Protein 1
Amino acid sequence: MHLLADKVQRLSGRFGHVGFGWSGGHGAMVASVIGILWLGWRNSPEPTTSVPCIVRRSMRARGFTRITLTRTVQRVMSDVQHQHIVTRFAPSPTGALHVGGARTALFAWAYARQQGASPGGGDGRFLLRIEDTDRARSSDAAAQSLMNDLRWLGINWDGEPVYQSERHAQGVYDAYVQQLLDAGRAYEDDGAVRFRMDRDVAFDDEVYGHIEVQKEQLEDFVIRKGDAGGRFPTFHLAVVIDDHDSGVTHVIRGQEHLTNTTKHVAIQDALGFDRPTYVHTPSIMNPDGSKMSKRDKAKAARKAAVDAQFDVNGLQPAGISADRVQAFIEKNNDDDDIADTIAHHLNVVLPEIDVRDFRASGYLPGALINYLSLLGWNPGDNVERFGRDFLVAHFSFKRLGKSNSRFDRDKLFRFNADDIAAMPPDNFAKTLHGHLAERHGDFADGLDDAQFAMFAKAYQPRARTLSEPVTLAAYLLVDDDAIAYDQKAVKKVLHKADGEGLRVLHEFADTLAAVDDWSPDTLEQTVKTFAESRELGLGKVAQPLRVALTGSTVSPSIGDTLSLVGRQRSMHRIELCLERNAIRA
């Protein structure tokens, strides 16, 4: 009943102003019906009083006949039930898509798609608007990057993206500014235009409830910049006008915008706009409780550069001047490109903050969507693993929480590893090859088709991300002479017990040289048979082999590892290992 009343309240102004398909007289009557229905329900002594009872009591007193009343209410209720839901995502193209923004887009998309998919539902629409009024910081490249990341996540929008800069050029915002000036709700101030906050403001939010702010706590604010700012509208004016002109019914955004909403509803009221439903979602925090910010990457890269006494001229080959690097180190900018390039040079892993970071690290879009959905929203019934269709079917504002969420990378790792393990092998190999070709071209090009198929099969069970196999299997592309041995592994596996590992490795080399079938299964069985014949555990043979072949004790099964390295290189690496790690007197 509360949901119906809320819809009726929101629609009352719309029916009265535009008639919603009726002639003017009928539109006025419909507006009256809705208004009376709403007031009757609010004032009813019994909260559960049915709609027909409320309407009968209220309308009979106003002279409506039963037939007219019934037909009108039925039509009104039908349109309320089939209300067109419109949501939007409105990023600023000043940088990469933050995971918090991605979650906002995901929730807005899911709600719109749910309305379109539900039986008897309306035509849910999800719009994309590029808020590029900050011309100094906005770029087309950033806008395209945002859209590419949304597509990668599977978040599709309806119609063409709307650019605020284009609407500004068309004079859309200036017309509304003049309307506010003429009505005395705005005034000029040193070339700029300010909105007059001269009355109390109250609004309802689906998550945080009823909010009231007294006028004494509010200040006038700029809605259009002066000549120095190109007379562009500020965020507060443009967002209100664009939402209205696009027919947005539900504004879903982060709680950092909650304080902005007082400004927005004040402008809406001044212009006679219907208010959309507001839904503010809790923030995403780091594990330590600090806000998960784009600056986290710059902070980590800056610290690494200072600790390593990084030469500011070191990035010139990458087209980044010493002045820009110095400004970055002195905290005068938080340039993502500089942070990423420094991290690459220093072999430092930066925290993933933006969607593109998670893409580069090799996360699957489904795993990221699943995890982001759980930050601030709970599907209930202890359900954690689900896909897009489940989210669309079950998303609701009622299950959004108020408390901020902490980003748990270990949990995301588990989600991603589970999804990788569950992929059909052929699909995994194709997905892995596409990722490596884009992000690690040298590695992808270094293996032929047969080797890559074997590589994908060997690493699928142990990969947590699509990039992890590259790190784990770096030994495949290293020259035999360049193998670096983990000295802890050498001492523990080869030198322990007076060089037992070296002796086993030397003996097994002769057995291995006689193997004709260099397939993983045959090689695995050869190692097992050799170990059993000498009453050794499998690890007593496999681990010395791993050190010889990879330089460490970490690799897929020993049969897969031998097969991947190949016969000639395996024999050569065993020989080199015995020579270089011999116990010296």
Protein 2
Amino acid sequence: MERLLLLEGTMAIDPQTLTLPLVITAGLIDGFNPCAFAVLLLFITFTMGMLQFRTNYRYGLMKVGLIYISGIFVTYVLIGIGFLSAISFFSTTHAVGKAAGFISIVLGLILMKDYFIPGRPLLAIPGSMHASINNWIKRTTVPGVFGAGVLVGLCTVPCSGGIYLAVIGLLSLQSTLVQGILYLLLYNLMLIIPLVAVLLASSNRKVVDKMVAWQSGNKATIRLLMGSFMVAMGFVILEII
């Protein structure tokens, strides 16, 4: 596999050494994206109300929660594989990688805007999809809960898609398709760690209420941090192409 090196004076930048830490960091940050995080808390609150009088309450909550998170995981993996496969098939230059870098920067700046200019977020789950997601969640069946996860996975792309796109652009520059897919799996495992952590803590109603309050009160700050990371990722990709 060809190593891509950029020389600046006597400094050599090897993107190979950046891949693993960037994939891990980006995945963890994406796990805190306001769309998936907010819907998970909504899902937990609703499920707690449905199951609170059952003897197997905690088991039921963990079960449906993991099914929901699995729906997000599978959807994100398939989206990533689709984009990476398309880039690997059609791209013979670094044009797609550069485009991914620029798009990541633009989306990051839009997210940061929500911190400095409060208002309706431009990058959010479409309002028309809220009812559909809620309907899937209320079914509390395996297909229904998994379907809710799939919908959230699709609809959260506008929230944090810049991070994912930047990572895919990075992988397309230096990895074979198989290596890229393995990195995508790692990315998405990192992505669900915060969601699983929230789920594990959700057996305590007071903890859930505190998380809901924290998430509601820090939406703008979360968007600022995620947007800043998107911009940084975009510049990293443009630097190594």
